[in-house]
Amino acid sequence: MSGMHKIGRRRILGYGAAAGAIAVAAPVISSCASQVASTQASANVQTPPPDSGKPPDGVGLASLLLGGIVRDMPTGPVEVRITRFTLEPGASVPPATLPYPSMMYIETGESTCPGNPGKIMYGADGAVLHKTTGEAAGHVCPATTTWYIPGGIEDAAANNGVDRMSSLIIEFVPVQTGATPTS
User: Residue 173 belongs to what H/E stretch?
Assistant: First the structure.
């Protein structure tokens, strides 16, 4: 790893959470604003019948995860952080531990992660495809799967494949109620 800084994936997420949230939200907000303007400008908006089961022309909708369970969701208010995380072939980040749960949806490529116990791999339909037990040194997280990582479980990532790995990481961070920001 010459020339590479050793920094944990979790720390990268912490630094990039705000930027990632803005990057994710900006196109959605822009799209919503465009749809509102388009709807207001057109009195004759056609939509498919309710029982057609498909979105209108020009609209794409893909379920990334239906039925994934966060087994240790913090109580009270929770800040949800969504961050895009990428690894070029051969790149890796060392193990780190978060005190709260997270999920990682693999968009493209694959990520090799430690096989320590407690993590669950879901298919897009919510079916449990794999549970880590600690028996294997590592496991491959293929594209279109979602990994649930409980709080307190050490995790890392390496791209041993030939394609760039891109993923979305969703973190569920407890928020202190009544806390006053300090300067």
Answer: strand 165-174
What domains can be seen in the chain, in order of their start residue?
9-174 (2.60.120.10)
Per-residue pLDDT of 9-43, as tens digits, reads: 444 444 344 333 333 333 443 443 344 444 444 44
Please count the other Cβ atoms lying within 10 Å of the Cβ belonging to residue 125.
11
Place of tokens 């897009």: 124
pTM, full prediction = 0.66
Residue from 100, 83, 84 nearest 148 by CA: 100
Q: How many CA atoms lie within 13 A of 164 on its CB side?
A: 6
Write the pLDDT tens digit of every residue in 119-136.
999 988 889 999 998 888
What CA–CA distance (Å, rounded) separates 62 from 53?
A: 13
List, edge to edge, every strand of the sheet that includes 154-158.
92-97, 154-158, 110-114, 138-142
Residues whose CB falls within 8 Å of the CB of residue 110, separated by 6 or more in sequence, listed in order: 140, 141, 142, 143, 159, 160, 161, 163, 165
Tokens of 67: 């039925």
CA separation for the pair 85, 105 (Å, rounded): 10
